Each structure stands twice: as C-alpha cells, then as structure tokens.
Amino acid sequence: MHRILSLAFSLSIFCAGSEAAMTPLVRAVDLTIGELATVELADNSKAKVKLIDLKEELDSVAGAVRKAVVTVEVNGKRVNLVSGTYNLPWKVGGVQIDCPITKGYNVKGTPGSWGLDKDARLRLWPAESPWVAPDSFIYPAKQKWFATDTQMANDPVYVDGGEAPYKKSIYYHSGLDIGGSEGLVEVVSAVDGLVVSAAGETLPEHRRDTPVGPRYDVVYLLDERGWYYRNSHLKEIDPRIKPGVRVKKGDRLGTLGKEGGSGGWTHLHFEIKSRQPSGKWGTQEGYAFLWQAYLQANKPDVIAVARPHHLLWTGETVTLDGSKSWAAAGKVVKYEWTFGDGSTASGARVKRKYTTPGRHSETLKVTDGKGNVAYDFAVVIVYDREHPERHITTVHPNYHPTKGIRAGHPVTFKVRSFIQGQSREGKEVWDFGDGSPKVEVRSDGNAVKLAPNGYAETVHRFKKPGDYLVRVERLNEFGVKASGNLWVRVGDAVRALK
I need a labelling partner for 142 at 20 to 30 A (CA). Which of 83, 184, 268, 299 fits? Predict the structure, then answer.
C-alpha cells in the first residue's frame, strides 16, 4: 500500500514566503531504460535515480495500456512503481517518487499531451515535502471526493459510450476528469493566477508557444509557477472571468457542465501544463495535488479507492484492487467487496471472472481501525466474445448536493445512458437503497451530445440518516445491463451541518 503522507508536517522550510511557495516542489526527469541521472530536489539535496525496467500490460479488447510498471533504483534502493492510474508517490531511498507516464501511452495515444520522448518520466520530492505547496492549491470542484465517475491520469477513455474493440488509436486521458451534476456544481480557481483565456478569447502574448487552446467553454489560468490550468466543459463561465483578470484560489469560475468536446458526460476537465524535461509543454500530472488539497480541506477519516475501470471479454478474469484506499488512522483493516450478482469477497485485491457482458459496477467498502467506513466502485466493461459487434451501453449517474445532506431534504439525481448504433428505447431504473419503490426515468441515450436535457432527472428524499448505496440500471435491446452506483451519506440536522 502507498505510504501516504500526513498533512500535519511542518512546512516552514518549503513555504517560508510567497516566492518559495510559487517555486514548484516537484522535480521531473525523463529516462531511457538503463539511464542514470542525478536530480537536485526542492530542498537542494540530491538523489541518484536509475530506470531499470519497464513492463506494460495491454487489454485484449482495445489493445490499450492498462498497467505500466517501472522498476527504479533511487539512491541504491529499488522499487516498482505503477504509472498514473490513481497511484500516489512512494517513499523510497530517502525521497518521494512517482511515474506519471511511460512510452507505451504514446504508441496509440497522443504523444503531444505529455511531451515525453524517452521511456518514462519520474517525479521526485524531498522525503517529508508536500507534493504541492498547501497554501497555493485547492480542490477545484465544490463537491465530495469521488462523488461520481472520474477519468484521471493516463486512463484510456472513450467518453462517447463504452470502449470499442480493436481501436486503431486510443485517447489516454492526460488531465483529470471530475464527474458531477450539470449546472449544479460550482467550479473554482485552484490557484491564485491570471486569466489568460476565457470563452474563446485569449491574451495576445499567450497565443503562441503555450498550451492554451481557446474554446467557448474553457478557462485557462497561469500561476506564478509558470503552470497553465485548463478548466473545460463549463456550462457557464462567471461574467467576471475575462482575459487579464487576476483571480484568487477559491474564486468562482463557473459551473460544471458538458460543453465542448465532453462526449456528452458532465464533468470538469482539469489539467495542468508545464515545461517538461524534454523542453516541450506537457501535462503536470495533478492527481496527487487534488488528493492533498482535498484531505487538507475536508479531513476525511477514510477514503476508498477501487479505480481505475477495466475492459475485457467475456470469460476473462480481472483483479479488482482496493489497495490504494487510505485511512487517517494509518491503516485500512477491512476490505469488503459486493458484486452486482449478490456475491461477496474480502481482501484488498480480489480476482473475478466475468461471463456476462455489460457495464458492471462493483462495490468496495473499506473500514479503518475506529470503525469509520467509506465506499467506492470498480467499473468493469465486459464485451461479448460471441458478439463483438454489439456495443456496450454505459451509464453516468450523479447527484447534488454531495455534502451536508440532511434527512428529509431533497437530493437531485441525474443519469444519462450512452448508446451507439442501437435502439435508444428503454429506461433507467433507480434503486435508492432505502427500501423505497424503484423509480424509472428516460434519458436521451446521448442522441445529441450537448443537448441541455440529455440527462434524466429525479428528486429523492431520504427519511433517515445513514450511508446509502444508490444503484441505477439500464438494459439495452440485447438484454445487456449497464449499471452504476453512488454512495450517498445522509446526516441528521446537526451532524450534516458540521
């Protein structure tokens, strides 16, 4: 399991003033296999790092990289690092290190996203350093962690509904997609910075040799680190946000939506671009920054992580992995899995064979030593080996508000199915997990990606406090099920307001 840092450490040597806070704490190096480099860290110490080996696992459906493992030697100590895909930095050899990207993602992907020319990129921090200066970065969406679907780091993504077999090219996600409810989730500035582009207008000096790509739904910010922050698919942009305006972290940018090239699902595409060791602009992988900022602001007791999603053929076996889960008390003591067919398993990692096609959403419950619990969901998309031409319908459920919910108060639930080349007849069926009758709704099946009413909406009230596992399902014309889950915590009138 990751050795995740406490946020209670002293920051005095890293954040002594505004100039120090705006100096990036991370150091990056690109290496080929067998190459050794000496890296000077943010505290002026030095680390020797060598890339020993790289192994990449491809799925059998799309030929996409699902897991890339690098073997690295740091100051004489060896460690295997899994690249991206919801993995946080490790402590080894007296430093912290991660691997955001490897060369295999360039083969069918978009090399320009990362600016990687060698075999792998490694990032290093001093052993007790935060990953980003805590007083300079906050979580950009006003909702709870993992409120719904996400696509982060180098996840293979096909947002237009399922992941088609035999893809000639793969869209590996270089940014951080935070799913949410359209028009209801406020998006704020993660940093103090300058608005360099908004709603398609860009400051002249940022039109060339920058990563800025103007669009009507996008806001770009530039901070004093020289990093560019892209906020995309906004349903609306706050009228104050204009090129040339300076913003403070927490200032409102607009609301989360599905505008632009969203594929039709509602989310914030949040991406940081910076100069990379190659000299090119490339993604500064930000999952660890989001994690640190969320923990600092919200102080959760425990976080369950069952992601990323998986893609396979019927008859294949996959390992579901909850080992990236975390507890403030220091240890997760119990991992419990509940599957869509009602069966269960225990353990941080479990192997499961899938014989039924569809979009499966499997539930992970983690418990810490104090009895605190959290839930997350592993999405497994399974194609029918006998009928590979049959597209798999997927669903995106979400809800609002995601925090401070009280018993008896209304909660808005939205869902959209994503269908290609099939009949869009059919309904989504909600089970709110509280014994109330199931509710049927009908989305548009993503017939028109940017349709303002593409998501079907319903309102539900939970009568009692508790943790509710909400499930939505839809059958396609072949009788293949797509399912999605949400974890909704409902408090009483006192606890929910804390």
Answer: 83
CB-CB contact of 257 with 181 (8 Å): no
Q: Name the least confident of 128-137, 412-421, 449-458.
A: 412-421
The per-residue pLDDT for range 79-88, each reduced to its tens digit, is 999 999 999 9
Please give the Cα distance from 198 to 217 (Å, whole number). Answer: 8
Same domain, 371 and 425: no
One domain for residues 382 and 417: no
Q: What's the structural domain count of the chain?
A: 4
Length of the chain: 498
Dump strand ranges (E) for 260-347: 267-275, 281-283, 302-303, 310-313, 317-321, 326-327, 332-338, 344-346
> pTM, whole model, 2 decimals?
0.93
Nearest-angstrom CA–CA distance, 474 and 358: 10
Residue 216, classed as helix, strand or coil, is: coil
What share of the chain in percent tops pLDDT 90? Answer: 84
CATH number at residue 119: 2.60.98
What's 5's DSSP letter? P
Distance CA 201, CA 441 (A): 39
